[in-house]
Amino acid sequence: MTSFIPEVEKALEWKDYLSLFYVSEDEASRLWPSACKDQVLEYMNKSEKVISQLLRVLMKGLNVTEIDSEKEKLVSGSRRINLNYYPVCPSPELTVGVGRHSDVSTLTVLLQDDIGGLYVRVEARDSWVHVPPVKGSLVINIGDALQIFSNGRYRSIEHRVAANGESNRISVPIFVNPRPTDIIAPLPDVLASTGEEPIYKPVLYSDYVKHFYRKAHDGKLTIDFAKK
């Protein structure tokens, strides 16, 4: 596996993927590809307990002790799962698997194979650290939506994937998102518990996502779209 990560901001991304939006089990059963739908649905259903527990812990850290159904839908009302395939790259020094970015999700639950290639940025040192695969483990990324909900107390993680010149790589992230029609902004409970002023303005979540996809990956600059 190569550990080289090109610094070219608009380097070609070397991957293929299938992105599946989850609305309901009935719709997924009817519309998702038959080759994978049963396995993907089983995995998503089994992930629900982990996601629920993670969100409770994260909300408790924000002094949000009561999570009613509306608040739960706001922070985690929609799901998307990607099946990512990174083929062997003949010139890994000229490309990237995925360019530097932070996820637009509330949080991301990542299952990766044993090949490796995921790097996260350590802001304090302005350096990149490899996240080695650990058998039987999941990688949890905080996304931009949670950074906004928490008024910056939780920070989304900037990450990237290196192209590989020796082995194919597969990863399966579940993105836990607000619903497209939700307005995302610092949670009132967070502001009330700290007395802070909001540093992010209310933004329609679908507008935030559209802004992310309109441009090339640019690190964490997408979050500026929501700043006051």
UniProtKB/TrEMBL annotation:
Keywords recorded for this protein, A-Z: Iron, Metal-binding, Oxidoreductase, Vitamin C
Keyword Transit peptide: no
A single GO molecular function term of this UniProt record: metal ion binding
Domain Fe2OG dioxygenase: 77-178
Pfam family, one: 2OG-FeII_Oxy
PROSITE patterns documented for this protein: FE2OG_OXY (PS51471)
Similarity annotation: Belongs to the iron/ascorbate-dependent oxidoreductase family.
The protein, known as: Fe2OG dioxygenase domain-containing protein
Organism: Ficus carica (Common fig)
